[in-house]
C-alpha cells in the first residue's frame, strides 16, 4: 500500500471533478529540507524557523540565519517557501532566553515576543529578505497574531528592513508576500480587516483548536478534550474559508489536521485548496484527494456538521476514507 501511495507523488493533486489542490510540506530542520523538497510537493507551506533557534546556545546572528534561509529557498527550487518568524514561548522554550509565566499558552508567544524585541525581529527579517533577493519565493508568516496593531507594526518593521537593505546593498529590496497565522479565534471575526493588510492566511489548526476549546494541547489530563473534529471547531474552520473567499484572501491550513486523511477530506469539502503537512503524510493525502469529488464531499460535510461529537465525525468520514482505499 505504501508503495502505491508513493507512486502517487508524481501526480499533481486534482480531484475527480477537476479541482486542483495544492499540497505543501511543513519543515523546520535544514537537514530535512533537501529530501523533503526533493519530493513532489508544491513547495514549503510552513518553515518553522524556531527550530533553528531552539537547537542553538544563543540567538543566531544575521549571517548565520541568512545562510540557512538561503539554503532552504535553494532546496525548494523555484517553489514558494512560507517562512514563519520566530514562534517561541508556550511549549517552545529557548534555554538561553527563559520565560517564566503562569500561563505560557496565554502569554509571551510568537509575534508578541518579536514585537517586544524589534532588534531580534529586524535581524530575522533582514536575513530572510537577503536570502530571497532575486527570487519571488519568500512568503513571510507571522505567528500568534491577535490584533490588527500587531500586523501593522510587523509590516512597518518589514518595510524598514527593506529600506535598510536597499540603502546598504545598492539594489532595491522589495516587500515579500506577507501572511498571518490564524490561531487566535478572535481574528476569525476580523478577516475583512486582515484582508486589507496581508496577502494570505494560514490556519494553525493545532493552536486554533486549543484556543477554541480552552484545552492545553500538551496537557495529558485533558488530552481527550483536544479535538480538531469537534463539530464547533469544524464550523469555525468552514467560517474562515468562506470569509477568506469572500474577501479574496488566499487561505491554507498548516496544522496537523491537514495531514490527516479525515481532516484533509473535511477541509477540501469546506473549500480549502491549500494544505501543508509533514512530508510523511503527503503521498497518502495525495492518493486520497485524487479519488474524491466535490459533490460527494458536499454531502459528507453537510452530514458531518450536523453531528454532535468529534467521535461521530471521525466514524462517518473514516468510513468514507476507507471506501476510497
Ligand atoms: C499550529 O498551531 O497549528 C501550527 C501549525 O503551529 P505550531 O504547531 O508550530 O504551533
Ligand atoms: Mg501554532
Automatic annotation (TrEMBL):
This is phosphoenolpyruvate--protein phosphotransferase. It comes from Shewanella schlegeliana. It is found in: Cytoplasm. Belongs to the PEP-utilizing enzyme family.
Amino acid at each position: 500500500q505504501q508503495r502505491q501511495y508513493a507512486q502517487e507523488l508524481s501526480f499533481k493533486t486534482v480531484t475527480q471533478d477537476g479541482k486542483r489542490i495544492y499540497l505543501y510540506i511543513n519543515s523546520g530542520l535544514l537537514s530535512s529540507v533537501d529530501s523533503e523538497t526533493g519530493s513532489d510537493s508544491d513547495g514549503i507551506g510552513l518553515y518553522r524557523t524556531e527550530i533553528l533557534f531552539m537547537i542553538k546556545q544563543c540567538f543566531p546572528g544575521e549571517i548565520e540565519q541568512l545562510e540557512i534561509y538561503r539554503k532552504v529557498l535553494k532546496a525548494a527550487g523555484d517553489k514558494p517557501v512560507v517562512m514563519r518568524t520566530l514562534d517561541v514561548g508556550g511549549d517552545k522554550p529557548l534555554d538561553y532566553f527563559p520565560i517564566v509565566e503562569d500561563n505560557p499558552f496565554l502569554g509571551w508567544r510568537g509575534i508578541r515576543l518579536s514585537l517586544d524585541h524589534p532588534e531580534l525581529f529586524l535581524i530575522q527579517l533582514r536575513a530572510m529578505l537577503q536570502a530571497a533577493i532575486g527570487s519571488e519565493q519568500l512568503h513571510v508568516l507571522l505567528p500568534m497574531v491577535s490584533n490588527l496593531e500587531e500586523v501593522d507594526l510587523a509590516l512597518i518593521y518589514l518595510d524598514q528592513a527593506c529600506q535598510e537593505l536597499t540603502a546598504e546593498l545598492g539594489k532595491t529590496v522589495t516587500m515579500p508576500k506577507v501572511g498571518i497565522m490564524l490561531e487566535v479565534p478572535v481574528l476569525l471575526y476580523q478577516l475583512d480587516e486582515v484582508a486589507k493588510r496581508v496577502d494570505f492566511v494560514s490556519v494553525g489548526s493545532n493552536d486554533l483548536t486549543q484556543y477554541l476549546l480552552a484545552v492545553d494541547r500538551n496537557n495529558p489530563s485533558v488530552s481527550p478534550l483536544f479535538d480538531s473534529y469537534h463539530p464547533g471547531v469544524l464550523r469555525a474552520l468552514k467560517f474562515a474559508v468562506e470569509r477568506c473567499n469572500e474577501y479574496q484572501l488566499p487561505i491554507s491550513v498548516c496544522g496537523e489536521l491537514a495531514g490527516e486523511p479525515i481532516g484533509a477530506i473535511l477541509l477540501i469539502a469546506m473549500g480549502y485548496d491549500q494544505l501543508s503537512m509533514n512530508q510523511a503524510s503527503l503521498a497518502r493525502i495525495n492518493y486520497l484527494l485524487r479519488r474524491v469529488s466535490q459533490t460527494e464531499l458536499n454531502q459528507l460535510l453537510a452530514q458531518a456538521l450536523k453531528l454532535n461529537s468529534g467521535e461521530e465525525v471521525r466514524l462517518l468520514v473514516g468510513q468514507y476514507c476507507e471506501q476510497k482505499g
